[in-house]
Design brief:
By secondary structure, this protein is mainly beta. The protein has helices at about 10-20, 180-185, 420-425; strands spanning about 1-5, 25-40, 55-65, 70-75, 95-105, 110-115, 120, 125, 130, 135, 140-145, 150-165, 165, 170-180, 195-205, 220-230, 235-240, 255-270, 270-280, 325-335, 350-360, 390-400, 405-420, 430-445, 450-460, 465-475, 480-485, 500-510, 510-520, 525-530, 530-535, 540-549. It has a domain at about 105-300.
């Protein structure tokens, strides 16, 4: 299935001419291809597709010449890897869904074609690409950025969102302005107190074709933000309000939405402190009111929990709840100095993190209308209300220490509690509590060779029970080898106490990388920034290639 339309042909002609004009400008780009050959495995309920071999790939090409730049991205899904959004029909095929041209001069920048944009923290607008989740909600249209005076930035845009190889039905319009008070008021330029103010307006238009309800065709979101910096302290806040927006996400209720985010940090040599809170009420915002999962989101509600990198620590990730949530996060980082009792010869780093998320308090609109009833105002709530229902709690501590010139360790302990009836990270119903311990050890043989070992354990009486993970990685000049076993030894069903083995090797040189692996992948959830996708169980051979130029 070749999906190249007439409107793309001028861009293909432009790119064909880039080679002839390369001596006048500069061409950069990158390529990545991910392939997997699937093998059916009844022990983990992995079913191979009819094609057996699937592929996700893309290649970016960008031309730079003075104040002008242009580019395109070729993408091929033959067919889409299992578990990615749009794997059934919508994303299969090849084409050029991303192409753009940009000109900038004297503080003015104009972009035509596809672009990514974020206003503030993203509560009103964030379009972005995340390959690991299969997300690309770029806008295709026109964007203008203008910097009339130093310290003042203005952005205006209009476009339609990418929907795999097509477009969503809605039109997105947005305006954002940000001003640095100290930059535009001369007497304040040298003050230690720095203040930035920002505001945005984003709206979508979608036809009302509903046979039952009268739905708003124009839905607007406004947001205001404040950033204050004083010496070693920084405070960043943002509030967003959205008018009524009945959609698939909220059961087509007419209640307005709102969100608030605040993050404060303090840092000095050897010490860092972070405190943040988030409150969300009915704040799903899509360019198609009938879209679900990760499709056609206009905004992003950032996660309020730590984004773990170790496999078992990330086994139960938190997914943001646009229908309503309140959360807090606190983190303290401290480095014990060298030549002290706790610091030792090379110093010791410790990071303590705590995150907690609850529902928000909701009450019925009236005694006769059920909570969240379709076609009504849904429910009532007070700003920054906190419900009694615990969604998620994460307490973790990480200690990093270099013991000798050749040996270092990272030790982690985590205690996790989550309501799986809400988060739906597996088929288990109810609360899940788990203890996770991790030892990440690295020994450097010499300047070129090192061995890394990970020992991980998760202990829980719920869901699939206890897990153990062992990993060894050998690093040499330009090459690496890995072997990993993720063992569900505590599964209540003895025949499901499965070893998920993975063997891999890779070669890296300059900007190019190739990795080949074979193994089993458990079914689970992958999350990045509070946005998640379900990963199906699989068994097979995986090849990944990437290069930049």
């Amino acid at each position: 299935m070749i999906k190249i339309t007439v409107k793309v042909l001028p861009l293909l002609m432009m790119c064909a001419s880039l080679q002839l004009r390369a001596q006048e400008g500069r061409v950069t780009g990158n390529f990545q291809g991910d392939f997997q050959y699937y093998i059916s495995d009844t022990t983990i309920n992995a079913v191979s597709p009819d094609e057996r071999l699937l592929m996700n790939s893309y290649a970016n090409f960008t031309y730079h010449k003075g104040n002008f730049s242009a580019g395109l991205r070729y993408e091929g899904y033959l067919n889409t890897l299992a578990g990615f959004p749009g794997e059934v029909c919508r994303n299969d095929g090849v084409g050029i869904p991303h192409r753009w041209a940009r000109f900038s001069k004297n503080g003015l920048e104009i972009t035509a074609g596809n672009f990514y944009e974020q206003f503030g923290n993203g509560l009103s607008l964030r379009t972005y690409e995340e390959k690991n989740l299969g997300i690309d909600n770029s806008l295709d249209g026109v964007r203008v950025k203008y910097n009339p005076v130093f310290g003042l930035n203005i952005t205006g845009l209009v476009g339609k969102q990418r929907y795999y190889f097509d477009y969503g039905p809605g039109i997105v319009r947005g305006f954002d302005a940000e001003i640095g008070i100290n930059d535009v008021i001369k007497p304040l330029m040298d003050k230690m107190l720095r203040i930035r103010l920002g505001g945005s307006f984003v709206s979508k238009y979608q036809d009302d074709n509903d046979p039952v309800y009268v739905l708003p065709e124009n839905v607007a979101t406004t947001a205001a933000r404040l950033n204050v910096n004083y010496k070693l302290f920084n405070l960043e806040t943002e509030y967003a309000y959205k008018i009524n927006d009945p959609s698939q996400d909220n059961n087509y209720i007419y209640k307005p939405g709102q969100a608030f985010l605040a993050t404060s940090t303090y840092s000095q040599s050897g010490l860092g402190i972070l405190l943040s809170t988030k409150w969300v009420d009915n704040m799903s915002f899509r360019s198609d009111r009938n879209a679900v999962l990760t499709d056609l989101n206009i905004n992003l509600l950032p996660e309020i929990t730590k984004n773990h990198v170790y496999t078992l620590a990330a086994y139960y990730p938190y997914a943001t709840q646009p229908a309503g949530e309140w959360g807090i996060q606190a983190e303290i980082f401290y480095k014990f100095k060298r030549k002290t009792t706790l610091g030792g010869t090379y110093g010791t780093q410790i990071a303590l993190n705590y995150a907690r998320v609850h529902n928000i308090d909701k009450t019925q609109v009236s005694d006769t209308i059920p909570l969240n009833a379709m076609g009504t105002d849904g429910y009532k709530t007070q700003f920054f209300s906190v419900g009694e229902e615990l969604y998620f709690e994460d307490i973790n501590v990480e200690v990093s220490k270099k013991w000798t010139k050749k040996f270092k360790s990272v030790l982690t302990y985590q205690h996790l509690t989550l309501d799986n009836n809400i988060l739906l990270q597996s088929e288990y119903h109810g609360m899940i509590k788990a203890h996770i311990g991790i030892a990440d050890l690295t020994y450097k043989l010499n300047s070129d060779y090192s061995i890394s070992t990970e020992l991980q354990g998760m202990f829980t009486d719920q869901d699939k029970g206890n897990w153990a993970l062992g990993l060894i990685e050998i690093n040499a000049p330009n090459v690496f080898f890995t072997i990993m076993d993720n063992w569900n030894y505590g599964n209540p069903e003895k025949d499901q106490r499965i070893h998920y083995f993975t063997l891999g090797m890779g070669y890296v040189k300059g900007g190019s990388r190739i990795q080949l692996s074979y193994g089993k992948q458990r079914q689970g959830v992958m999350c990045v920034g509070g946005v998640c996708r379900m990963v199906p169980a699989s068994n097979g051979v995986m090849l990944s290639m990437s290069s930049t130029f």
